């Protein structure tokens, strides 16, 4: 009996010791902060993680500027840099222009990135797919689409969007068109699991409307938000797939500015951010009104979120969607776009995107916004990150002094049901880790559920350092 008691105590002590929170600091490494964009922590497991970034700079002197590159930095279990894989996606022919279109992790082993190149002298545009595999430690590049263009200045615009469930990507080539030409577009939807086309076709749209926004449903259908050409204040939503092309009717007094597609109970829905009409102002509301639209039934529920701010709804970013039962929670942020002045070395600088205030927004069974929680302010313009574990949400955002007792971009816990904040502390070096270290951009945060480990890259200019928090969820 005594032996059993001793054994029980020892097991309990061992479990408690194992469950203790531990913070490990990786060795600092450097990046080129002025050139690298879309930095994110990907492909994380208990052994390695990777930092992805893209260089998308057009320069006159190729030997000075790293022209067009995709980078994957491999970090070991302690967060120290062990290798860097670089894919140069630039065609060195004079006059060929390139553009990075977007990227996403496919599964535990692969990440896919899309780029385009266009060349007016040959009247062509080409889209490339670059797949990085951590098993091989290399990129594999493949041309997936070729289009004819009129010239470099009349090449149209290519968009890449990903479905919310991560299964599909859509390459949408909005061709250059005038009032005298048909509005013809090219649509390619790719199954990311197999990296093969789900469907691919040429789409002719009415010329009295122009494309404003598009999204991809979790069933692989493209929904376009279109605005009437000219001064008329009129909008329409049109859904296209390999087998259909139909309008999605809604209240003509409602003006959607941005589309986002989700699924609930195997049905497709749209969430649109917008306003009621041109004449009505929403008190300077950042997120104005939100419409929850059932694609199957055509039912629309419009809610006024009445948040403070001074932005329109054209650049709302959905950071995270969580669906539990009939409730839908979204973490969203407004984005501001500024365009730097041209320089002698860079005549065509890329626009700069800065994220504003984030908010948690929850819809009830009927599609009404029943709760919304503004996430402080965001003077640093960083991306909010939301991690789900059980009934808890762990949210990194900028919390002002007074709201939680500290100021800075840090992580807090929220109860999913009530969205009430919870105490979140990790003792490290005699102080609360989250109050004294803060967090970097939300793209650089990852949670590894299998090992209960939180990873984040703390970025200070060019210097980057990994912090690993073991036994994060208690």
UniProtKB/TrEMBL annotation:
> Which superkingdom?
Bacteria
Which InterPro entries is this protein grouped with? Quino_amine_DH_bsu
* Keywords recorded for this protein, A-Z: Signal
> Where does the secretion signal sit in this chain?
1-19
Protein name, as recorded: Uncharacterized protein
Identify the taxonomic lineage of the organism of origin: Bacteria, Pseudomonadati, Bacteroidota, Flavobacteriia, Flavobacteriales
């Amino acid at each position: 009996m005594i032996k059993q008691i001793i054994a029980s105590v020892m097991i309990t002590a061992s479990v408690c010791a194992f469950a203790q929170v531990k913070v490990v600091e990786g060795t600092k490494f450097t990046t080129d902060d002025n050139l690298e964009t879309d930095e994110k922590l990907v492909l994380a497991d208990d052994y390695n993680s990777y930092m992805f970034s893209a260089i998308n700079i057009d320069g006159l002197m190729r030997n000075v500027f790293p022209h067009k590159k995709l980078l994957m930095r491999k970090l070991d279990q302690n967060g120290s840099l062990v290798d860097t894989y670089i894919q140069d996606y630039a065609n060195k022919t004079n006059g060929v222009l390139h553009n990075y279109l977007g990227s996403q992790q496919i599964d535990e082993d692969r990440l896919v990135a899309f780029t385009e190149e266009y060349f007016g002298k040959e009247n062509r545009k080409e889209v490339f797919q670059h797949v990085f595999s951590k098993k091989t430690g290399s990129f594999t590049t493949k041309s997936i689409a070729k289009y004819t263009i009129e010239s470099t200045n009349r090449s149209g615009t290519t968009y890449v969007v990903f479905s919310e469930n991560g299964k599909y990507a859509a390459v949408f080539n909005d061709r250059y068109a005038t009032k005298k030409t048909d509005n013809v577009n090219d649509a390619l939807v790719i199954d990311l699991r197999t990296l093969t086309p789900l469907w691919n076709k040429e789409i002719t749209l009415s010329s009295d409307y122009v494309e404003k926004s598009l999204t991809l449903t979790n069933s692989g259908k493209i929904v376009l938000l279109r605005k009437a050409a000219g001064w008329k204040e009129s909008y329409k939503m049109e859904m296209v797939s390999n087998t259909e092309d139909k309008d999605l009717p809604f209240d003509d007094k409602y003006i959607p500015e941005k589309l986002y597609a989700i699924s609930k109970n195997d049905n497709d829905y749209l969430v649109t951010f917008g306003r009621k009409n041109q004449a009505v102002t929403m008190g300077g509301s950042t997120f104005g009104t939100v419409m929850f639209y059932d694609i199957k039934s055509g039912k629309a529920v419009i809610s006024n979120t009445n948040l403070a701010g001074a932005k329109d709804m054209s650049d709302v970013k959905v950071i995270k969607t969580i669906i539990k039962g009939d409730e839908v929670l979204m973490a969203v942020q407004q984005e501001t776009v500024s365009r730097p002045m041209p320089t002698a070395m860079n005549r065509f600088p890329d626009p700069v995107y800065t994220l504003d205030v984030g908010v948690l927004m929850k819809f009830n069974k009927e599609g009404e916004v029943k709760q919304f929680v503004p996430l402080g302010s965001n003077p640093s313009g960083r991306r909010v990150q939301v991690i789900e574990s059980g009934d808890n949400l762990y949210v990194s955002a900028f919390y002002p002094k007074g709201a939680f007792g500290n100021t800075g971009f840090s992580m807090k816990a929220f109860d999913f049901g009530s969205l009430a904040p919870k105490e979140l502390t990790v003792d490290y070096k005699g102080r609360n880790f989250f109050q004294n270290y803060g967090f970097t951009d939300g793209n650089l945060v990852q949670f590894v559920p299998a090992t209960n480990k939180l990873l984040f890259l703390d970025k200070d200019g060019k210097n980057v350092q990994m912090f690993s928090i073991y036994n994060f969820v208690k």
